[in-house]
Design brief:
By secondary structure, this protein is mainly alpha-helical. It has a single domain, classed as Orthogonal Bundle (Arc Repressor Mutant, subunit A), CATH 1.10.10.10. It has five helices and four strands; from the N terminus they run βαααββααβ. It has a two-stranded antiparallel ribbon. A hairpin with a 7-residue loop joins strand 2 and strand 3. Helix 1 packs across helix 3 and helix 2 packs across helix 3. The longest helix is centred in the C-terminal third of the chain and has 20 residues.
């Protein structure tokens, strides 16, 4: 079961939080290939946000290849098979590099060593990335 926890007061827009947590659910195996996600309206109701917020998250995930539209006569979005998941692209690597550079600079300014920064990155990468909060089911 996947949970989504929204930080209403945070700097990250809610649609990005939803998209990030769905990707984390896919990465951790909490959302399996072939799983149909709830409608945007249903998820929005469960999360107590406007359906446009969930629609925007779903649209982003569809565009990036983390979700697919159903083509079996039923409406909805589902998680593609592992073979159909998006791969590491040059655009992704550029985005990753920019984000890590900004965080590394902040870490250095705060007195963080290279070893501490590397250890934090590895720890985060190895974690299961799931959070507690509202459920998708």
């Amino acid at each position: 079961m996947l949970y989504i926890e929204l930080d209403i007061q945070g700097d990250v827009p809610m649609h990005e939080q939803i998209a990030q947590q769905i990707i984390a659910g896919i990465a951790s195996g909490a959302i399996e290939p072939g799983k149909t996600l709830p409608s945007a309206r249903r998820l929005a109701s469960a999360l107590r946000v406007k359906s446009q917020v969930v629609n925007k998250a779903y649209h982003t995930l569809l565009k990036e290849g983390f979700l697919q539209e159903r083509y079996d006569g039923r409406l909805g979005v589902l998680v593609p098979s592992l073979a159909e998941m998006p791969k590491v692209t040059e655009a992704y690597m550029n985005r990753l590099q920019k984000q890590l550079q900004a965080l590394a600079a902040e870490g250095r300014a705060r007195g963080m060593s290279e070893a501490e920064f590397s250890k934090a990155c590895v720890s985060i990468y190895r974690s299961d990335l799931t959070r507690m909060g509202d459920t998708l089911e």
